[in-house]
Amino acid sequence: METSRPAWLNTEEPLLTAKYIFLVLLGIAGVIYHLWFAESYGIEMQLHLVIHLGFMMVAIVAVSFDPQVTREDGWLKVLDNYLILPVELVGSAGIAIYLWMNYERLAIFSIGVYSNVDFYVGILLLLLIIDQSRRAFGNILPAVGVVGIIYALAGPYFPSILRHGGIGFRRLVTSQTVEFAGVYDTLVQVAATYIVIFIIFAAFLEAYGAMDYFVRIGAKVGSYVKSGITQTAVVTSVAMGSVNGSAAANAATTGAFTIPLMKDQGISNETAAAIESVSSSGGQIMPPIMGAAAFVMAEITGTSYLHIITIGLLPALLFYGTIAVAVHMITLKEGAGLTNLEDVGSGSEEDEPEDEDRTIEDISMGTASAPSDVSVLAEASQASFLSSLIKGMYLWIPVSILVYTLVVLQYDPVYAGFFSTLAIFPVALAQGLYFEDDKKNAVRNFVENTIEGCRLGISNAAPITMAVAVIAIFVGVLNQTGFTQTLAQSLISLSGGELALLLFFAMFAAILFGLGMPTVAAYIVAVLLIAPALVNLGIRLETAHFFVFYFAILSAITPPVAIACIITAEISKGNFWRVAGKSLILGMPLFLLPYVFVINDAIMYWSFPETAMLFPVLFLGMVCLSIASINYLNGDLSWPFRIGIGLVGAGILFAPLIPVADQLIRAALIVVAVGMFFQRGTFDGVRRYVTKVLQ
Fold it and tell me: Is pLDDT above 90 for 368?
């Protein structure tokens, strides 16, 4: 992939350059260290966690530093930027060095007795984790850690099931830090092994052109349908979301490219933002990578990675198939003007986005990595799908190696991630040398992209690690007080043993925990609190985890926080509440999908021929609900038709709840649904479309 010269080489602002160079050097050191550990496991795990957390805390400080802050921004911001952040930088590095040098004494010889210095180091570590998670994600996430600390200290004063004996402040601090538990326990271990190696893997894919490639593929897919560029948002978001593991990052990177193009096509600001929000929210459910969630889930459930991606595949296809159909219908409903991609970018040069205004700040924050030239779409529309696929095939080689080492060779995921990451370098270099006439320029681009991949890797991994660290404090407190077991029993009692009511409580809790939080953190908290109750009422462990996971993801489009909608509304210059409302309309069937796979478990736990027959049936039901939600099927719907097709869709999805003859009733509803499609002339349009594609 050819890149322009880095903006920082010519910048006249030395602090911006220094920040970028610092992040690059930190990224190079961090990537080399984590790849070494993934290959060798060369030091004890607890020491690795100390080093990993030290890297990530320093990275958060570096990313948070704003060299453009001046007195005009207010003395508080100046004080924070030029005094507090440097102190946090020194403190973060100092804690890692202290724990490294005193590891043997603290881990082996202390026997629960710690000095005052150990205690103060523990306090500083907790404060830094809470503040740095605030810098990365705002106030909601650190509030979870603060609530955990308050709950631990004030246990005797809480009512009912919340009451416990209380934990002394000194005991709380040492148990969460210098005892190498809490902050340095299982959750951060997952972040320091599985998550970080796949974030590094995804960062190099992005640096070597994955975003550009996925946009081309999405554009080519979109060229076959009337919804055109809106389908590019769907395809690009599922591809990028699967590797970057963040709805917010997905919305920011792909949305910066797709939202302006959707607006050019005639889509309203709010609808364009809603399409990108819903599309970005679900990339993490798509195998094989699932935004590293597959590895976290496998670790917590004690099952294999292969098992997790197998049971997650068909629900993910239902999720994105439903989104694709909904996006198609809402595009046609709004009467978008462009029906093919040859028209995109055919306007004047002033209409095209420019790169000159990109700053080093954009680059260092990872907001300038999306392709910005609409010629990508013009090229995609003229090339064949096969040639578009082949041009970026080098990106599939490391992904194929990842799948092969995990599924066939059954390597440990961290070891498989190491091999897959190493495979990116030679194939990216070979790709550049093959397609670039100027070999020196190809090598230079490769070096620059490799450096950028290191910076992206450390910058993207740091926020996730800080999120997991602050959640580890909360979870550590819950485990110390025994609250998780008490809550599970209380939820069962509150629901009266009714599974439907317990599922509703689980949905509400997962969405609540997910508001404003990264998905992995929300999933971990929700599943540790809610899944035991679901399992106690007969839900399979993996199903309970997926149920909670899906709603943690959907919290990204759920008001009042709706983090994906906040980002896309800003990009589109639309109204946040209208964006969130349209996102809920587009995603309405998705909120029923977790209930669907609980009731129709053959869609997750494959069996023949039940699974093969069930998938298209459930997809039909989801489509019917989308039609009712969007109020469009070859034209606006009358209220009787809209209500009828919604009820038919719900009946198809939830037929197993009917006590007698459920399959017969489902078959009858399928016939009714097909008849309603015929009545609206849908199959005439399908026939014309197939004829066009074949020609």
Answer: no
The angle, 0 to 180 degrees and rounded to 10, between the axes of the packed helices 576-587 and 269-281 is: 50
| Residue 516 pLDDT exceeds 90 | no
Mean pLDDT of 508-513: 82
- pLDDT score of 373 more than 60: no
Mean residue pLDDT of the chain comes to 83
Looking at residue 183, what DSSP letter applies?
Answer: G
What is the C-alpha separation between 239 and 49, in angstroms, rounded?
30
Radius of gyration of the chain, Cα coordinates, nearest whole angstrom: 26
Q: How far apart are CA 411 and CA 216, in angstroms?
A: 32
Per-residue pLDDT at 370: 45
Burial status of residue 168 (CB atoms within 10 A of its CB: 0-12, 13-18, 19 or more): exposed
pTM beyond cutoff 0.90: no
Who's near 153: CB < 8 A, 6+ residues apart?
166, 167, 169, 172
CA distance 86 to 388: 47
Question: ω before 156 within 30° of 0 (cis)?
Answer: no
d(CA 600, CA 547): 13
Q: Of all residues in the chain, what percent carry a pLDDT higher than 70?
A: 85
Q: What's the pLDDT tens digit per position in 212-233?
A: 777 777 666 666 666 667 777 7
Tokens of 409: 């060779």
Structure tokens at 238: 């599922």
Question: Of 364, 326, 536, 332, nearest to 455 (Cα)?
Answer: 364
Q: Compute the half-sphere exposure of residue 488: CA atoms within 13 Å on the CB side of its CA.
A: 18
Side chain identity at residue 3, one-letter code: T
Q: Which letter does DSSP use for residue 347 in this model?
A: S
Q: How much is the pLDDT for 225? A: 67
Q: What is the number of residues in the chain?
A: 695
Helix, coil or strand: residue 436: coil
Residue-wise pLDDT tens digits, 84-96: 999 999 999 999 9
Give the Å distances, CA to CA, from 19 to 10, 67, 91, 360, 463: 14, 8, 18, 9, 17
Q: What is the mean pLDDT of residues 544-555?
A: 91
Cα dist. 632→619, 650, 679, 686 in Å?
17, 17, 13, 16
> The dihedral of CA 571, 572, 573, 575: what is its sign?
negative
Give mean pLDDT, residues 504-512. 85
Separation of alpha carbons 579 and 572, rounded Å = 10
Q: Which residues contact 590 (CB under 8 A, 6 or more apart)?
A: 278, 282, 319, 322, 323, 550, 554
**What DSSP line would sit under 30-77, residue for residue?**
HHHHHHHHHHH--S-HHHHHHHHHHHHHHHHHHHH--TT--GGG-HHH
Mean pLDDT in residue range 346-356: 39
Cβ atoms of 201 and 458 closer than 8 Å: no
pLDDT at 5: 45
Q: CA 257 → CA 55, 372, 377, 485, distances in Å?
A: 31, 6, 11, 46
Q: What span, in angstroms and rounded, lies between the C-alpha atoms of 378 and 6?
A: 26
